[in-house]
Amino acid sequence: MASLCENYKQMKLYTLVLGLFLQFVVIESQAQELSHQAGFSIVGVGDMMYGTHFPTKAGLPPFNNPWPLVQAVDSVFQTADVVFGNLEGAFLDEGEVYKSCKDTTKCYAFKTPSSYAKVLDQIGFDMVSLANNHIRDFGPPGLKNTRQLLDSMGIAYAGIIDQPYDIIVSNGKKVGLCAFAPNTGTVQIKDLENAKAIVKKLTNECDYVVVSFHGGAEGGKHQHITRQTETFYGENRGNVYEFAHTLIDAGADVVFGHGPHVPRAIEVYKGRFIAYSLGNFCTYSQFNINGPNGLSPVAQVWLDEDGRMVKGKIHPFYQQKGKGVLKDPLKRVIFKMRELTRIDFPELNDRLLFEDDGTFYMVLDQKIPMLPTFEKVQIELDTKSYSLRP
Q1: Under DSSP, is residue 152 helix (H, G, I), strand (E, B) or coil?
Q2: Mean pLDDT score of the chain, rounded to an integer?
Q3: Are 279 and 293 in contact, with CB atoms under 8 Å apart?
Q4: Which residues have C-beta within 8 Å of that of residue 9, sequence separation ≥ 6?
Q5: Distance between CA atoms of 74 and 59, rounded to whole angstroms?
Q6: Which of 52, 81, 151, 319 is most buried by a 10 A CB count?
Q7: What is the C-alpha separation between 323 and 320, in angstroms, rounded?
């Protein structure tokens, strides 16, 4: 009988090993298939401010030229069907600051020269969010001039009261953008009913719907997703977890977050991609770019016809003071976002595969064929039959 039990244990171990091997084969096969699959590609980045001449011109890049600040990402942007970013501050040459400042020499108000706007078109931006706390730093003149410049380049924008959303066409697909923030004059992140109505309208009109939000507390102490309302400096910055899930339930396909100035976790919810914070993309002056604040993820997702994520990739970049955005050979933002995702979304740890090169995709969404479990093992010994149950 002892021999029978030993044989049974060996057979069960064999079944387990073979099953795990089959899982590995299926995952590897899926990875290879995804590497060859094409899909509609959307790139998203976080906060961008290419230089300010307020309070002095010391906040502008060398030779008054913003192109060197972003040229390192050009090859990535060129692979996308749509490129999105959050535009912090206004394009304006002359005008007084509207933001309340006790000391204008130390005021975080951003006034970027109008000539710099062309870098958005040059690098390939298709759509931007104006829903943030700096777009009205220089009041109506700054907002008006910024809108005129974006219109002249055919760059879509959204997130302000009289333009909550915009729609573009790229490679035959209609893509809708809507943007939200907790700030005055923006479409409110806390008004979920209005946000759902906007997304549902876009879902009826577009092939893909992209949602942008400027929300969550700021800085290195606030890198994790709390799944609760976040307050910073006494301001309600929204419950970004509830917000993102609610809008995907309403029909959104991609959610790009920004505002905390540091990268946060990613999530795949109902097959749709969420980046809870893409940190600082290109913020030339007056921004803290030390530690995690200097990591600049470029998130790229490929979608199927229904808007479900086929795969994604975090392209690793970082900012260096005075030099702009640079490729990061250490891939620090990949490992940072992977670790944050592992901690903040443990329920995805067995399904979201996040590789060292930044590629990520969902596995095991469908049951993998396995060997049948041994509910009963019949072993013949001499002329007797013994029935064993695990």
Answers
A1: helix
A2: 88
A3: yes
A4: none
A5: 24
A6: 52
A7: 5
Nearest one of 1, 112, 94 to 53, comparing CA atoms: 112
259 φ/ψ angles, rounded to the nearest 5 degrees: 125, -40
Alpha helices, DSSP H only, in the chain? 2-36, 67-70, 74-77, 118-123, 139-153, 192-205, 240-250, 332-344
Write down the residue that tokens 């097959």 correspond to.
271
- Mean local confidence (pLDDT), 288-303: 97
Q: What's the whole-number mean pLDDT along residues 296-300? A: 98
3 state DSSP class of 267: strand
| pLDDT on residue 115 | 98
Please tell me the predicted confidence (pLDDT) of residue 361: 96
90 touches 109 (CB < 8 A): no
User: pTM surpassing 0.90?
Assistant: no
Among residues 296, 360, 282, the alpha carbon closest in space to that of 332 is found at: 296
| Structural domains of the chain in order of their starting residue, each with its CATH number | 2-33+368-388 (no CATH), 37-357 (3.60.21.10)
Q: 86 CB contacts (<8 Å, ≥6 apart)?
A: 45, 46, 47, 48, 128, 129, 132, 212, 214, 256, 258, 278, 281
Positive or negative, the CA dihedral 128, 132, 137, 141 is positive
Mean pLDDT for 321-338 is 97
Cα distance between residue 276 and residue 236, in whole Å: 17
CA dihedral 248, 197, 48, 100 (to 10 degrees): -130
CA dihedral 267, 190, 133, 126 (to 10 degrees): 50
Q: Return the SS3 of 382.
A: coil
The residue behind tokens 């977890």 is 241
- Which pairs with CB-CB distance under 8 Å and at least 24 residues apart come from 56-65? 58/285, 59/284, 59/285, 59/286, 60/113, 60/284, 60/285, 61/284, 61/324, 62/322, 64/113, 64/115
DSSP sequence for 164-212: SEEEEEETTEEEEEEEEBSSTTB-BTT-HHHHHHHHHHHHHH-SEEEEE
Q: How many CB atoms lie within 10 A of CB 15?
A: 15
